[in-house]
Design goal:
heterodimer; A: mainly alpha; 9 helices; 2 strands; B: mainly alpha; rod-shaped
Chain lengths: 199, 119
């Protein structure tokens, strides 16, 4: 149910994505806010794993603006999140084309700055430093993969999408998803082992 | 290096999840910026409906064209048949008349010949 209070839509209970999309298509553009709030963290996280921190806000914005512009093309029989992931993937691919040369991520500096701000004890600091180190390794390991392999690994292992969904998003056969996943895991495993990672 | 660290994918996946790089928070005004753009951009009309419309129009048009073609074809054929019948009648009459003339001429010449033979 939807009620209107001073021009703003308040949803009394969580409605399905498709219902919200249909409201948007009827001209209630404010409803898109709900869709944004629901999906922005997933979109942001995926884009971060795929493209890094440079211009991340711009990329997120690009995804949602593309989604809004193409909302009429969205088939109500499909899942909105899968459709949105597809747009996210396209934005990531466009980004790769625009920045063919991979850029180094400035996560280390940011993370270390954050770490310096933390007022924690020595042992906790060491533990946190280890965590930072591992996160950095994972990030470098992901960056070392091709975008195609990285995307499949991130979507399956971190975003927990099914192989079928990934096949639909990236527009490849499910067999290719399995193959890419296998190779991506292998490559990442080798990278982490080469860095002396012990769990 | 310890190869037994990643004996199966579960360990690797668990390690990945545990040490997943966390995206930095969005700028505070990002949502407002996006919504401002959304409100100012008119939503594109569905491209599916016009396609269906075009398909329907195309289908109806094809049916109309086919029907008209059939009507014109039938009309032409019936006219051609009428013309043919009229022509046939004319030809038939002409043939009959020419046969009649020929028959009369033959009869008269035959009678002349036969008369001369007997004379």
């Amino acid at each position: 149910m939807v009620s209107v209070v001073s021009g703003e839509f308040l949803l009394e209970k969580p409605e399905s994505d498709n219902y919200l999309v249909s409201l948007c298509l009827q001209g209630h553009s404010q409803i898109f806010n709900q869709l944004y709030q629901r999906h922005q963290s997933k979109v942001r996280s995926t884009l971060y794993q795929l493209c890094g921190n440079d211009g991340l806000d711009d990329l997120v914005q690009e995804v949602f603006i593309r989604a809004w512009k193409g909302l009429a093309k969205f088939k109500q029989t499909a899942q909105f999140s899968t459709w949105l992931y597809r747009i996210t993937w396209n934005v990531a691919c466009d980004r790769r084309r625009n920045f063919a040369k991979s850029r180094s991520r400035n996560v280390d500096v940011e993370d270390l700055t954050q770490l310096a701000d933390l007022s924690i004890s020595g042992s906790e600091k060491v533990s946190e430093l280890n965590n930072m180190h591992y996160r950095d390794l994972v990030q470098r390991g992901l960056t070392a993969l091709s975008l195609e392999h990285r995307a499949v690994l991130v979507m399956h292992e971190l975003e927990e999408l099914s192989q079928k969904e990934i096949a639909e998003i990236v527009d490849i056969p499910i067999g290719t998803v399995k193959s890419r996943l296998f190779h991506a895991r292998g490559a990442l495993r080798k990278f982490l082992e080469s860095q002396g990672v012990e769990i | 290096m310890n190869n037994s660290n990643f004996n199966d994918d579960h360990d690797l996946v668990a390690f990945l999840k545990q040490n997943q790089p966390i995206a930095p928070p969005p700028s505070p005004n990002l949502q407002a910026v996006i919504m401002e753009q959304v409100i100012n951009i008119p939503i594109a009309k569905s491209s599916i409906l016009p396609k269906i419309g075009i398909k329907k129009i195309g289908l109806v048009g094809a049916v109309i064209i086919t029907a008209l073609s059939l009507i014109v074809f039938n009309q032409t054929r019936s006219m051609q048949t009428a013309f043919n019948e009229a022509e046939n009648l004319t030809i038939e009459k002409s043939l009959l008349s020419s046969w009649q003339i020929a028959d009369e001429e033959f009869t008269s010449s035959y009678s002349v010949l036969s008369n001369s033979n007997y004379e």
